[in-house]
Amino acid sequence: MAVRIPIIVVPTVTKLAPDRSGAVVVGGSHAAVFPVYLVVQSGARAAVLHDAGIGKDEAGVSGLAWAETFGMAVAAVAAASARIGDGEDMVTRGVISRANALARHCGVEVGMNAGEAADRLRLAPLPSHRMKQGDHVRSIYDFPAGKRRIVCLDSISLATWQDRGQVIACGSHGGLPTLNYTAEVRPALAIFNDAFAAAENSGTAALKPLAAEGIAAAAVSSSSARIGTGRSTLLEGILSACNSEAVALGAQVGMPALELAKKAARGGRTLALKSVPVPGI
To answer: Fewer CB atoms near the end CB (10 Å): N or C, the chain?
Structure first.
């Protein structure tokens, strides 16, 4: 008897096990290149991700065409239809907004429920090969006047103990799955993408809990910066949401992200850091 291909539902693809044995993944991550890379590296066959409001330069779905280059079927759900960072909600309420050619060949259509799309993606072929991670996912912004480094990360999951107490501008959405990564590293400031129009403001859901942890956090409009690209968050982003700790640093909605990052890097308030070293994530 043939083994039925599993469908794995997760809040974020940053914590996928290394071998998913040809499964279909429904993940709450946005559908830019880096999350798709993580799905491929896990050994999955196909994926349904979140379109994060699509945003600037259609970055929220940029991973779909990229996936075709190595034979992976990928679809994305409309931001307004389901919470980002919540795979279960995507399966239940998500409506497909985009699908690459390989996904369409499996019968996935725009307007289809994400759960049905995932079931059809069981027919997808396995990707032809796994891609290597590029070296563009982490960089340091040159700011000699700063007492703290300004670090650009394409995903907050790439943060390490070396980023503790520094300023991080990342390509991640600001939904709940980012909370643990950020709280463990405890940056002086973290700037995310708001995944505009994600259901129930889920693209900024981590900001308030981070304030309770004493961590300044803000988000930029997805129409101003490319989600999934930390340098775009920093250099192009315009703030659309700020928590109380960020406001204490001088954050205001409508402010360029770079201006806030420089304020935090120059000094600002002294951040209360936990004494236990944080291992690399």
So the answer is: N
Q: What string of DSSP letters covers 139-202? A: EEE--TT-SS-EEEES-GGG--GGGTTSEEEEEEE-STTHHHHHHHH--SEEEEE--TT-GGGG
Cα separation, 61 vs 154, whole angstroms: 15
Q: Which amino acid is at 241?
A: A
**pLDDT tens figures, 138-152:** 999 999 999 999 999
- Contact residues for 178 (Cβ-Cβ < 8 A; gap 6+): 85, 156, 172, 190, 192, 206
CA pair distance 72, 59, nearest whole angstrom: 18
pLDDT digits (tens, 9 = 90+) for 191-238: 999 999 799 999 999 999 999 999 999 999 999 999 999 999 999 999
Residue 223's region, left for phi above 0, alpha for psi from -120 to 50, else beta, is: alpha
Contact 220, 194 (CB under 8 A): yes
Give residue limits of the domains in the chain: 7-123, 138-266
pLDDT band at 161 (very low <50, low <70, confident <90, very high): very high
Direct distance between the N- and C-terminal alpha carbons of the chain, in angstroms, rounded to an integer? 40
Total number of residues shown for the chain: 281
- Chain segment 219-232, per-residue pLDDT in tens: 999 999 999 999 99
pLDDT-above-90 percentage for the chain: 83
